[in-house]
Amino acid sequence: MPIIHPSAFVHESARIHPGTQVGPQAFIDADVEIGPGCQIMHGAHIARWTTLGEGNRVFPGAVLGHEPQDLGYRGEASYTRIGDFNSFREGSTVHRGDREGTETRIGNHNLLMANSHVGHNCRVGNHVILVNGSLLAGFVQVGDRAIISGNCLVHQFVRVGTLAMMRGGSRISKDLPPYCISDEVNWARAINRVGLKRGGFTPEGIRAVKESFKLFFRSGLRQREAIEQIAALYGHLGEVTVFLEFLEGSRRGIVGGRNKIRRTSDETLD
After folding, report:
1. pTM exceeding 0.85
2. Does residue 142 come out as left (phi exceeding 0), alpha (psi in the -120 to 50 range) or beta?
3. Cα 173 to the chain's mean position, in Å?
4. I want to staple 150 with a disulfide (CB 3.0 to 4.6 A). Which of 72, 125, 131, 225 is the partner?
5. Per-residue model confidence (pLDDT) at position 257
6. Following CA atoms 258, 260, 263, 264 in sequence, which dihedral angle do they give, to the nearest 10 degrees?
7. Are the beta carbons of 20 and 37 closer than 8 angstroms?
8. Predicted confidence band at 77 (pLDDT cuts at 50, 70, 90)?
9. Element (H, E) at 233
């Protein structure tokens, strides 16, 4: 049986699985399902049409699954789907989809630190870290093991690739490819070598990723030419295939990184 504090509010239609603890003054709305072994701490708010898997921890003041910040939303049934073993620290927020039947989805083993935000219709993979104050606008996609550092801003519809990293205070309005480190505004500085090593990449794979990065961002080749050269040289390696598929799938364009005059730090996102 779940352990529910007497001062908590749990709607009669909510389904709370065994082993879950609901703390004082927590609020669990209608049509919510919370899997086994979760911990909903005091003052946390789980809004309507939200599903949590196993072993999630929701800290005080976190709000999961509330209405999207979209003026076109009219209260339609939309959803928040959360996987297993995630942590939502104090003040973090996740909003549900912005139209009927749509959803915001968060995978497994993610850490959303204090005051981070995941907007409506986002897709967050597995083992992702959103550091304090990082903000994902609507429809953002974040790949596995990416790190969005403190006070970073990600524009709506942007994709962040697997094992990519945004340095603190940076902001992007274009896609950040897998394995890349960004800083300032729409700028790819280097590859995430430490992340690749921790991710079990071979020395050969890391070298191939580094050379692919240089061809795409530093060679002066047109993007299509760079992609073709990368495919010819390293396309047989799975790590590089992920990189190439991301580049080919971009709709908003890829962040910059070539040897040119850099943007000023106060340049606005468009």
Report:
1. yes
2. beta
3. 15
4. 131
5. 84
6. 140
7. yes
8. very high
9. helix 223-234
CB atoms within 10 A of CB 36: 14
pLDDT of residue 82: 98
On the CB side of 142, CA atoms within 13 Å amount to 38
The Cα–Cα gap between 43 and 22 comes to: 10
Please say whether the beta carbons of 57 and 27 come within 8 A: no
205 φ, ψ to 5°? -65, -40
| 57 alpha-carbon distance from chain centroid | 17
pLDDT score, position 40: 98
How high is the pLDDT of residue 99? 97
Count of Cβ atoms closer than 10 Å to residue 12 Cβ: 5
Residues 32 and 49: their CA atoms lie apart, in Å, by 5
Three-class SS of residue 44?
Answer: coil
Q: DSSP class of residue 29?
A: -
Task: Report the candidate in 92, 17, 88 with the shortest Cα–Cα distance to residue 58.
Answer: 88
Q: Which residues contact 231 (CB under 8 A, 6 or more apart)?
A: 244
Give CA–CA dist 188/11, Å, rounded: 47
> Could you give the 3-state DSSP secondary structure of residue 230?
helix
CATH class, domain 3-139, is: mainly beta
- At 195-252, the pLDDT tens digits run 999 999 999 999 999 999 999 999 989 999 999 999 999 999 999 999 999 999 999 9
